[in-house]
Amino acid sequence: MRALLFSRSVPKYAITKAVATLSSRYVASASSLELAPNFALDTPFAGAVRCQVLLSGICGSDLGMLLATSSRYFEPYTSFPFVPGHEVVASTKELPGFLDTDVRVVLEPALTCEIRAIDPPCEFCANGNTDKCVNTISGQLSEGLQTGYCASTGGGWSEQIYAHPKQLHVLPQDMSTRDAVMVEPLACAIHSVLGIGNLAPDNICVIGAGSVGNLITAALFEYYKNAKITVLAKYAHQRNSVESYGATTATTFAELKRIARQNTRSLMVGKRVSGGFDVTFDAVGSAESIEQAAEITNPGGTIILAGMPSLSKIDLSALWHKQLSLIGSYAYGTEHVDDKP
């Protein structure tokens, strides 16, 4: 079968990184991603279900990989060569309970203790917090945090993958395949929003209105209906989307600072706001956006990093001075949702 295969190549990584500094355009000839016309999956792991890929998304983490802009932190958690693609809608006739029936499924990509046949499971998996699993390089599978970064499973940028039944969720018949491919990123966005915990914020900001920021905004209006939500959205189609939920929008950071000041009657100290938003989501993950989040968050407030950060040099003076809480948000586990304010 055909697959897009990503291999480890130091020369190609260096060339891609150099090209990326000159242009944001992807240069296929310089990349470690290649079309493998006769790709074959490994021998199925115990309990594996073979699935036919119907549609696979392109995540921001995938783009960072292709452009060599993401951190190399994840390399030890990845088995090369691998087929990318973790936002996957597929069909299968091998799912227990639906044998010989062709059902559409959405993939939950995390490769946890149960999928790796590790018994007893780690304390996080035992409590349903599979997003924090510590056994991502052991068990019956090759290294890999998720499907799409693991040689044992394949990935969505191919025609077939292996998945454990626990990873597969049957889709309603009235949900289109195109809509279903957004289920996985939406779950990530909801997990980020639930990171607010028991706080009752009056003012919330989302920096970035791409796919991640848009989905976070939608989740905020579902769970925090009484909060005033402001989104930094550069482009017209992004503004139209988040404003359809009821968000206030800013097109520049200067405008966002003015809104933060007006909302909280804060002072300007030099070019900085003394107060700001109770909770700020960074849905971009750049050095600039993280510093911006710290600058516009109220003292004692919370910043949630929802966009995957790249390797960055960041001035965290505001984090220290304002005594802010900085929370990372990755994937999702078993979520317990109470009524939100």
Uncertain ranges: none
Overall mean pLDDT: 92
**Biggest sheet details:** 6 strands, parallel
C-alpha geometry = globular
Strand order of the largest sheet: 10-9-8-13-14-15
Summed up, the helix count is: 10
Write down how many β-strands occur, each being a DSSP E stretch of 2 or more residues. 15
Order of helices and strands: EHEEHEEHEEHHEHEHEHEEEHEHE
Q: What Rg do the Cα atoms give?
A: 21 Å
Straight-line distance between termini = 50 Å
- Structural class comes to alpha/beta
Residue share in β-strands: 15-25%
Fraction of residues in H or I helices:
25-40%
Structure in words:
The protein starts with a strand and ends in a 13-residue tail after the last strand. Helices cover 27% and strands 20% of the residues. The strands form four sheets. The protein has a six-stranded parallel beta sheet with strand order 10-9-8-13-14-15, sandwiched between helices. The chain has helices at 10-22, 60-67, 123-126, 177-180, 183-194, 211-223, 236-245, 253-264, 287-296, 317-321, and strands spanning 3-6, 33-36, 49-56, 88-92, 103-107, 160-163, 168-170, 203-207, 228-232, 248-250, 268-269, 272-273, 277-282, 297-305, 325-328. Strand 9 (228-232), helix 7 (236-245) and strand 10 form a beta-alpha-beta unit. The longest helix has 13 residues, at 10-22. The protein is of the alpha/beta class and 341 residues long.
